[in-house]
Amino acid sequence: MSAPLHPITSADLYPTSTPDTAAAALEAGLDVWRDLPAAQQPEWPDRAELEAVAAELASVPPLVFAGECDLLRGQLAAAARGEAFLLQGGDCAETFAEATADRIRNKIKTMLQMAVVLTYGASMPVIKLGRMAGQYSKPRSSTQETRQGVTLPAYRGDAINGFPFEEASRTPDPKRLLKAYHTSSSTLNLIRAFTKGGFADLRQVHEWNRGFVSSPANARYEAMARDIDRAMKFMIAAGGDTDALRTVDFWSSHEGLLLDYERALTRIDSRTGTPYNVSAHFVWIGERTRQLDGAHVDLMSRVRNPIGVKIGPTTTPDDLMKLVDKLDPEREPGRLTLVSRMGAGKIRGNLPALAETTKKEGLPALWICDPMHGNTFESASGFKTRRFDDVMDEVRGFFEVHNAVGTVPGGLHVELTGDDVTECMGGAEHIDDADLATRYETLCDPRLNHQQSLEMAFLVAEMLTG
Ligand code: PEP
Ligand code: MN
């Protein structure tokens, strides 16, 4: 799983300087989306300013390298074959203010803990993919928000406008795109430092649990960490090779929503002569922007990164095949991840026909489960929330359907944070409607807190062992 990164060469850093006709055609293809309908784009007040920012973004260094995206693609192909499991997680919307060392470290620790629970419980390598270092823009159900008779543009994520309900803050500002790039860069730098610099060493398995409040899930984790410690000491004493345990791969991902940003960070890789989106290792197309003839599907169909697409409850087998034909015409293993997000009440009814289709067509697509977005509701006290039990029921349904059809339940896509927030109801702490107000911090969708995330990992490890 942990193949070495390819050595970084000047070819990674500079686009091709001698465009031949094929390269020129590829480059031109990257702008076809501009003539297509593009859903969920902000109304920038000053187009010229946006263009100046996009030109600047087109010249900044890449955040990720093409060779890394290729490695991730290979790992996702293994997950699609049932030889690995994908854990994709992070905030619904990252914010600039919370891109701090503590918050980032807590999220990484939580993901590392979840991954170790899954790896240990299911004897399966776990691919760690953050919804991190770029998740700064959001699709919205309404373009405007009205409070006490005042109507302003809806908050669309820190890459576009500010959350405070004031005209100046809610007006889209292209300079925020530059801040999104630089904050992604510093976040990714910290991720690389933590995961390559010793912190992710499996010998730190106890350390990842420190600083979190004690809870049943943490106690269960401690017990498992003791077992892992013993096993590692045995391995070391027996002269086993533990080098592979020192570092982990931790990849970045976000929704490829803001096309001016995504395009500016899409470059022709001179090693292969093909385009890569160098803003993240993995990008996905959301449920609201996956129109077959739309701009998002067109741009993402042209990049070589592994990509995902959300598959909601209204998707028919025919819609699915048309999306697959556009996004993965070569049927390349690891290229396309199908992220089902049906809702607990719908998954058992709606997923079987889709899974049957990918099976019948022999597609190498990786199916993963987003058990969050189909289970959102407003609580009696007015908070946007989700019930832990609904989330787990959707995951259980996902496993049941794939096991019945004979396809692979290959991973999870979760909104989570490493902090002890109170945004989702239930879990071992029994967070109820009255508790939501205690620490409700998300600016967008409710996230599992640290304990709920660990609990989920223990439950999913049991599902994986069947
Ligand atoms: C999201 O992932 O935050 C999101 C908006 O999801 P979806 O596109 O599935 O609604
Ligand atoms: Mn969300």
Could you walk me through the main structural features you see in this protein, from its secondary elements to its overall organization?
The chain is of the alpha/beta class and 466 residues long. 39% of the residues lie in helices and 13% in strands. Helix 13 packs parallel to helix 14 (450-465). The longest helix has 22 residues, at 101-122. The radius of gyration is 22 Å and the shape is globular. The site of phosphoenolpyruvate has 10 residues, from loops.
Q: Strand arrangement, largest sheet? A: 1-2-5-8-9-10-11-14
Strand content: 5-15%
Oligomer: single chain
**SS content category:** alpha/beta
Q: What is the succession of H and E elements?
A: HHHHEHEEEHHHEHEEEHEHEHEEEHEH
Bound molecules: phosphoenolpyruvate, manganese (II) ion
Principal-axis shape: globular
Query: How many angstroms separate the termini?
Result: 23 Å
Give the mean pLDDT.
Answer: 94
In short:
The chain is α/β, with parallel strands linked by helices and 466 residues long. 39% of the residues lie in helices and 13% in strands.
